Amino acid sequence: MKEISCKLLIIGAGPGGYICAIRAGQLGIDTVIVEAVKPGGTCLNVGCIPSKAMIHAADEYLKVSEMASGTSPLGISLSGPALDLARTVAWKDRIVGRLTTGVAGLLKKAKVKSVQGWARFRDGKTVEVDTETGLQVIRAETIVIATGSVPVELPFLPFGGSVISSTGALALKQVPQALAVVGGGYIGLELGTAFAKLGAKVTVVEALPRILPQYDAELTRPVAKRLEALGVKVLTGAKAKGLSAKGDALLVEAADGSEQKIAADKVLVTVGRKPLVEGWGLEEIDLDRDGRFIRIDEQCRTSMRGIYAIGDVTGEPMLAHRAMAQGEMVAEIVAGHKRSWDKRSIPAVCFTDPEVVTAGLSPEEAKALGIEIKSSSFPFSANGRAMTLLGEDGFVRIVARADNHLVLGIQAVGTGVSELSSAFSLAIEMGARLEDIAGTIHAHPTQSEAFLEAALRTLGHALHI
Amino acid sequence: MGEHVIKLPDVGEGVAEAELVEWHVKIGDLVREDAVIAAVMTDKATVEIPSPVDGEIIWLGAEIGETVAVGSPIVRIKIAGDGPAETVAEAAPAEPKSEARQPAPAAVEAAPAPAKKAEPAAALKPVPRATTLGLPRPEGERPLASPAVRLRAKEAGIDLRQIPGTGPAGRVTHEDLDGFAARGAAVPVAGLQAKTGVEEIKVIGLRRRIAEKMALAKSRIPHITYVEEVDVTALEELRAKLNATKKPDRPKLTLLPFLMRALVKAVAEQPQLNAIYDDDAGIIHRHAGVHIGMAAQTPGGLMVPVVKHAEARDLWDCAVEVNRLAEAAKAGTATREELTGSTITITSLGAMGGVATTPVINYPEVAIVGVNKIMIRPMWDGSQFVPRKMMNLSSSFDHRVIDGWDAAVFVQRLKALLEAPAMIFVEG
Question: Does domain B147-183 have CATH number 4.10.320.10?
Fold first, then answer.
């Protein structure tokens, strides 16, 4: 049994953990990071990055398919497009490989020691890791828990065989003929849309009355419209019951109570993610919990001195960039800097078709806080650049305080709007007022002009509508 | 772009100048219409000067503590929009808010209405509101600041909530942070520390006026102070009964209205005590009306609002007026008229009244009655000790014009009235 000691030990090399490690290394802290699989965590390996690669491939395939069918308004035609999913997946895997190797390199450059294996708490200062070469005991002054989250499994649809999680969906070697997606949240819709574009017959089963239930109906309407155009069948208010006896169909209780059988050679279950709080000895240190999550304060400190937690294991929103910001902050706190969580905006992007971006408060959230608001939106149908991209669906919406015009929230739905998330978040984080956005020159011709116009419209003097 | 000059408005009848006691703005500040930009003080009342326009402060015409003549420019504001290039007008002073509520007993001469010649401000209304400003952040909300400012504050150990933001919507800017840091936010140090700092506090405004008046009173008037105890058991019983059976719209009676009525009775017999002694001219002005000043502690300092014509007010009317003036003084809305013109003064520290005090006469009056705390004390009734509610009166007189004998007779008269309160209300 080998023993090492260090100042800072990080458990989990996902986006939160590896950022924390790199920053700690830069600050000269003697840092060790433990990862059971590959650096990059869910995000790089089986989440954000590979799914976006597949979504892009699907978009491209759909475009050429439309051109081949002669329906492209651009006047481009071609013949015989074909898809080799195995090669697509291999391309995606190369991207993932480059990124995970890159992260490993960055960790090395920051002089962070990486240990591969499954970590387990022995006590509040000691962790043992099952490595290929035997048990490694690591003693650390400070430990950061960054174990992340895992997909939620349904007891009547356990993963295995034709039932797959998002991880399985990203590794399929061929496009399923019929794909049933259980759960109409962002993960299910992103992947479901991609497979529909690749040629699968997709059915989405959502228990709530609407898809993307965390967003308001106005925001999700363009997504629902597009799903319909892509031939995706959406069953809302419907409950998945299990696989048929033969295993070739999903049994569903529809909104009207009737039993339905949805033929499916693959059933993708995306009913959410849960914090990974099992299997690494949480019971040994008995940290306070916040529901399923580990309770943290505004410096990501847990209930035990010297133990921090960051990322999905600490709560919603389970987003990589939240984990990264927490990781960076914790590294600086460990280095003795004075920092605490003071973020006003954690933007969220949903890579459906079209994309959905939210930052700050929605109109309903702001009203629920008792704030008197002004809110207005500007449609992409009045934006020149959106027209040239065949992306006229959607809008940018701004929520501001009625009294001093402080921007409280910005939402958008539309083609490629994910890239506007930085402008939205910056505006909120800087404490922008409507007049600040209205007074900023937005380049023409870009979709960002809709942001400017939404601010102007909220002020009552939009120019292009 | 135009410029607007605010001149010191006429802040009260016969006032030619006022002391600037507070700036609410500094150069470079953006102000909204109606926002208070300065406070000036006349003899006793503080008057706030609002901005009649939206704009940016570009010049301040006086230092705090400086006396400014009515009509002289005090602020220049750069105004946005296509208003007249050069607008010069007077700001309207904030109107005294208590005017409408002032009761007018028959004998009281109508108080002169506050001057309203500063109306031209209304003519400026068409100036468009500047929209480059945001209202400041409401109380209790998270401070608004860019991440860079937040980081700097955190590293410097400064709580952003302590810093008033001057940016749009009350945003805390780097400059705000610099200013706060320069003023030196005290960093708490553990343990006992020797302290060497000396803070200089300019004695201005109300404090200066109190200081001057006290010095004048004590340097010119040879005080004689006479302390006597008064058995207020019967008075307190009467007061409790009146309060228990009073009509709901009537105020709760304190001891003060009773004392006022007793004072009216006592000075009717000794008019030399209800007087103003003009010592420069060598003339005593004996007043027919009894205008009782009531010294009151306010957040701003000692103020003496005046119950005018107490002789024409019954007990309840006195109580109503006392309450009204006390509120106005506390809220800072008492007008100059309400704070001047007393002929005799009562001073009371209520529950803090102590056993005896040496009141300072409200110059140029000749008598002041100080009320001490009511305490239950054992009193000898000729055969045994009985618990009685006892209160001392500590009264000072101007010994130049009031002899000790007269002072004693006056206080004994007050004592007799208060100990048999029915006598207060018997006419003739």
Answer: yes
CB-CB under 8 Å, A435 with B146: no
Instruction: Give the residue numbers of B annotated as catalytic, written as ranges.
Output: 399, 403
Mean pLDDT of all residues in A288-299: 96
Domain A348-459 in this protein, CATH class: alpha beta
Query: In the CATH hierarchy, which fold is given to the domain comprising A2-49+88-150+274-334?
Result: FAD/NAD(P)-binding domain (3.50.50)
Does A431 contact B144 at a Cβ distance shorter than 8 Å?
yes
Q: Domains of chain A: which residue ranges?
A: 2-49+88-150+274-334, 163-271, 348-459
Architecture label for domain A163-271: 3-Layer(bba) Sandwich (3.50)
- Which pair of tokens denotes residue A204? 């989405």
For residue A48, give Cα distances in angstroms to A134, A184, A450, B309: 32, 17, 27, 84
Is the CB of residue B78 less than 8 Å away from at least one CB of chain A? no
Contact B155 A430 (CB under 8 A): no
Hey, CA dihedral for A311, A314, A318, A321, is it positive or negative? Answer: negative
Percent of chain B with pLDDT over 70: 82
Q: Say yes or no for a CB contact (<8 Å) between B146 and A342.
A: no
More confidently predicted of A438 and A1: A438
CATH architecture of B2-124: Beta Barrel (2.40)
pTM of the model: 0.61
Q: Is A444 a catalytic residue?
A: yes
Q: Decide if B296 contacts B305 (C-beta within 8 A).
A: yes
CB-based contact B168 A436, cutoff 8 Å: yes
* pLDDT (average), residues A139-143: 97
Q: Does A339 touch chain B (CB under 8 A)?
A: yes
- Close Cβ partners of A339 (under 8 Å, ≥ 6 residues apart): A299, A329, A332, A333, B151, B154
Q: How confident is the model at residue B137 (pLDDT cuts 50, 70, 90)?
A: low
Tell me if chain A has a CB within 8 Å of the CB of B171.
yes
Instruction: Pinpoint the residues of chain B covered by CATH 2.40.50.100.
Output: 2-124
- Name the CATH topology of B222-425: Chloramphenicol Acetyltransferase (3.30.559)
> Side chain identity at A52, as an amino acid letter?
K
CB A30 within 8 A of CB A8: yes
Q: Which of B149, B154, B158, B166 to mutate to test the interface with A (most CBs of A within 10 A)?
A: B154
Q: B133 to chain A: nearest residue by CA?
A: A404
pLDDT at B113 over 70: no
Q: Which of residues 90-149 of B touch A (CB under 8 A)?
A: 131-132, 134-138, 142, 144-147
Instruction: Report the residue of A339, A369, A404 to disrupt the B interface, i.e. the one with the largest count of B CBs within 10 Å.
Output: A404
pLDDT recorded at residue B109: 42
Residue B237 CB neighbours (<10 A): 12
Asked if the domains A163-271 and A348-459 are classified in one and the same CATH topology, the answer is no
